[in-house]
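S1.2 Input.
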Amino acid sequence: MAGLEVLYTSVAGGITCPQDAVMCFVHWEMIKSGYRCIGSGDEPRSSDKKSELLPADWSSNKELYSLRYKAKDSDTQLLLKGITVDSTLIFNLMNSSTQQVSDLTVNISDYVDAEQLHTFDRVFKDTNSFSEKVKNQLLPAQDRPSGQRPEKKSQREEEEEEQRRRGEDSDPLRIPSRHPHRPHCPNPLVPPFAAGGADLDPFGSRGGGGMIVDPLRSGYPRSGFDPSSGIPDILPPGAVPPGARFDPFGPIGRHRPGPDPDHMPPPGFDDMFM
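S1.3 Output.
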């Protein structure tokens, strides 16, 4: 941890609680990653300047730490805030340009000995683990170790993935996705002004499907029954025009002699004792 001791010694007079030591450690990790502190608070000031040191009022508020950083070789600005919640210190690091935010929660007693605040050799515990935690969870993605950065696929990998996807689409045994792919371009076989065609051609004579469901034209096997020839004892021949839609209103070929039983009450209908 070269350089941390010098930094810690320079601000030792302002370190009065364990969270001060944690904040000092996180600040040094920011410095090592190529950032420089330009001041405290949320708003820029005329006195802002890049420095590896902490500003004079960095620990004036023990409940809310707020420091601003700027990249050494670019205009990237970061806002670091540390909020004390019980025995933890919650950090939020926001990129002022992209509004991207990363966070880190630190259990103070895991990394700082509250009884050794003014003894640098003993104040920090498990510094290697603490340093890795800051790098992998708090620092911006481009500054994290290579194992934590999102890897960009090479052109060859993208081509292989595209070929694999095409192979899956052509596999007849593959179960289709529940969210089928929908093309973004219009179907060139459909006329551009075909909207509402079903209303203008209800029987689908132009191959558009129509809007009337005709059980005799639905594509299912027909029984060979032709309503235009009439129904014995029910409809005379010609009552239904040839090719017209016809919904049967009873079993074909039925013949019930005498009155319809459905029109007569059952025997003894008025007898309350039955």
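S1.4 Remarks. The chain has seven helices and five strands.
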